[in-house]
Amino acid sequence: MHALRTRFKKDIVAEFLPALLARRSHAKVGSSSKGHRHKSNKVLILCSGMPSVPSKGPLLEFLAKKGYWVFYPRYRGTWESSGSFLRYPLDKDVLDIIDEIPGGFKDAYSGKKYRIKHPEIYLVGSSFGGPAAILASRDQRVKKAILISAIVDWTVPSRVERLSLVWKFWREAFGEAIRFSKKDWDKLEGGNFYNPVRHIHEIDGKKLFFIHAKDDRIVTYGPVAKFAKKVGAPILSLKTGGHFGLGILTKPAIYKKIRKFLAS
C-alpha cells in the first residue's frame, strides 16, 4: 500500500492514507483496500522528531487500518515542503493542516479530492515534534495528543545533544533537506519560542498522554514527568528503552494503552 501525497497552505507537503475500515469483522488485516470503506472521521496527524528521514509507510498503514485518516507532514523548510524551518513554531504547521482538512484536499498524483466532514483531530508528537503536538492541543479542535519522548523545555540541556552541536550536525549531514538560519535556530535556546513550559497554564493535561523512558539520555525524563504532573496529564513511565520514536506506536502493549486513552 502506497501513501498518497497532498499539499496544505501551498507550503506543507504531507503523505496521507484514508482510514481503512473493514467491511466485515472477519476481514484480514493484510487485505487490499478493495475490501475497505472510507467512512471514518477520525484524523491522526504525526508530528515527527527531527531530523528523522521521512519514511513511515508501514506506520501510516498500521494506523489507517485502525480506522484513522493519518497524515504525515514535512514541516515548512524540511524535505519536500517549502518555506524556512523554524521561521514559525511547528504547531503553526499543524494548525494550518487542521484548518484545511474540512474544506478538502487532493492527491497530488491522481488529482482525486478528499473531504472529511466534522473531523475528530488527534495528534502524536515525538521528540522535536512533541512541542508541536502539545502546543497545538490548546486548540479546541484537537481532542487528544500522544507525546512520545517529547521535549517540554528547550532550556533544559540534553545529556548528549546540545543545541549548538545539533545545529552543526544537521547542516553537515542533512544539507538542503533542512533549510534554516542560525538566527531562527537560536530562538530555541532563548526559551520563549516553541516551548511548552512557557505555556503551561494554557495546556489542558486531560488531552495529553506522555510515554517516556527513564533512561532517555536525549530528552531527560525528570523535566517531562514534572511537566506532566503540573498539567495533570497521565504518563507511561518505562524503566528502559532510551529515546523512542513514532515506531513505538505499533507495539501491541503500547498501542493498547494509547487506544484506551484516545477512546476515553
UniProtKB/TrEMBL annotation:
<feature type="domain" description="Peptidase S9 prolyl oligopeptidase catalytic">
    <location>
        <begin position="61"/>
        <end position="231"/>
    </location>
</feature>
<dbReference type="Pfam" id="PF00326">
    <property type="entry name" value="Peptidase_S9"/>
</dbReference>
<dbReference type="GO" id="GO:0006508">
    <property type="term" value="P:proteolysis"/>
</dbReference>
<protein>
    <recommendedName>
        <fullName>Peptidase S9 prolyl oligopeptidase catalytic domain-containing protein</fullName>
    </recommendedName>
</protein>
<dbReference type="GO" id="GO:0008236">
    <property type="term" value="F:serine-type peptidase activity"/>
</dbReference>
<dbReference type="InterPro" id="IPR001375">
    <property type="entry name" value="Peptidase_S9_cat"/>
</dbReference>
<dbReference type="InterPro" id="IPR029058">
    <property type="entry name" value="AB_hydrolase_fold"/>
</dbReference>
